[in-house]
Amino acid sequence: MRFRLGYLLGFGSGYYLGAKAGRARYEQLSDMLDRVRRSDAYETTADKARSIVDEQVERVKEVVEPRIEQAREVVEERVGRAKEAVDEVVEEQQGTNGQQAGAGSADETRSDLPPGPPPAGSLSDLPPVPPPTTPLTDDRPLGGPPA
């Protein structure tokens, strides 16, 4: 409630003072801003800011794009290995049961699988996923060697 009251008071006082200043003061401020925007110093500063932003965007792309490709390769490899493991299990079940996997009633228990850990080549045999790299928190440049 305090925030709303403060917001309304600020809006009301700004409206009052703006109305008191009138159209002439608005025109003066608008002309002053236009002169500043057309000045050489403003254009120079804006150009420098744009070039810095463009440079940083390129540096970020150089760092991120190889990592994206690396992640894509890892995902494709793991998906392929998972598909192979699923195919092996399905083939094994079809060969043991003589029927499609999943056929039969839902109340049946699986007595054809041995107790214990999953068979070799299962999803649990995949290597662990490496931890994500931590974001840079120090003052070294992006992609640079550790300090």
Keywords:
elongated, mainly alpha, 147 residues
Offer a quick outline of the entry:
The chain is mainly α. It has helices at residues 2-38, 40-97. It is elongated.
Explain what the structure shows.
There is one protein chain. The protein is mostly helical and 147 residues long. It is built from 2 helices and no strands. The longest helix is centred in the middle third of the chain and has 58 residues, at 40-97.
Mean pLDDT rating: 77
Question: What is the overall silhouette?
Answer: elongated
Low-confidence runs (pLDDT<50, min 5 residues)? 100-106
As a percent range, the share of strand residues is under 5%
Classify the helix fraction into a percent range: 55-70%
User: How many β strands by DSSP?
Assistant: 0
Distance between the termini: 50 Å
Question: SSE order, as H and E?
Answer: HH
Counting DSSP H or I runs of 4 or more residues, the number of helices is 2
Radius of gyration: 33 Å
Which structural class do you get from the secondary structure elements?
A: mainly alpha
Main beta-sheet annotation: none
